[in-house]
Design brief:
With 109 residues, the chain is mainly α. The protein contains 3 helices and 2 strands; from the N terminus they run H-H-H-E-E.
Length: 109
């Protein structure tokens, strides 16, 4: 008899999605282990159940890709902020790098 992945596999996939959206990355490890366990116990899934799992897994993959892009963008911004404190980098007419002395960024009081 075909087995429906609900509530375990599908709900775990939903919980992983909500965890990503809530930026609770520390919970992903335990949820992933629980998902692997639930998938290993799931037998004789029908095509509807497999399609549901595939759809939710694809959604989670897209969300995780977006999270990775966001983290990379934040790291680039932090690196740019730090580079300002070490000086300005410019390039001459021939394309050679020229570093200028660091300058102090004015702060508002």
């Amino acid at each position: 008899m075909p087995q429906n992945p609900e509530p375990t596999v599908a709900s775990l996939l939903d919980e992983i999605h909500q965890t990503l959206l809530a930026r609770q990355y520390d919970r992903l490890s335990s949820l992933t282990l629980a998902l692997e366990d639930a998938l290993s116990r799931a037998k004789n899934l029908d095509s509807a159940a497999l399609a549901l799992i595939q759809t939710r897994a694809a959604r989670n993959a897209a969300t995780l890709t977006a999270v990775q892009r966001g983290i990379r963008a934040a790291l680039r911004r932090v690196a740019e902020i730090r580079s300002v404190s070490t000086g300005l980098t410019t390039y001459d007419k021939s394309g050679l790098r020229q570093d200028t002395l660091p300058f102090v960024v004015a702060q508002r009081l």
